[in-house]
Amino acid sequence: MLKRLILLGMTLGTAAAVPLSAQKPDSQIAPLSVSLQKEGEALLAAGSYIAAQDALETALAVDPRNREAFVDLSRVAIRQKLFGKAIRFSNKALALEPNDRDALAVQGVAMVEAGASARAQQNLAKLQNLCVKGCPQLSELGAAITRGPSPTAPKPAPKK
Length: 160
Known about the structure:
Blueprint: H1 2-17, H2 31-45, H3 49-62, H4 67-79, H5 83-96, H6 101-113, H7 117-130, H8 136-147
Helix pairs in contact: 2-3, 2-4, 3-4, 4-5, 4-6, 5-6, 6-7, 6-8, 7-8
């Protein structure tokens, strides 16, 4: 029993020491996870936010490296006006790939809606460096910053 615990501890320690670059690339995400993510994306487009969230969370349970599932969960949270939650989900996608254009744009939109336009500008600057010739994500975030928070978004608390 003690030998098994020691072996388990050594195995877990070794796994934690593996650098991110040695982990699975996007092309090796579990097919079931990708399928569930696509299902969640379709449900989001249809306006079924709870079902979309369930499918996307299941996709992440199958393979927690599915960045697109985190990005789509961010989109679900934005539609539900849960901007802090959207930012947290996009942070998880960006932890897996710091230059993920979709995650940067979605996070920036959530920041604008939460009243953090200055932070959204930082994401816009990152996208400008990544999209030298332009990209849809750059346009999406730029339009959100120009538009500002939607009227139904909560107003930022006044600074003291």
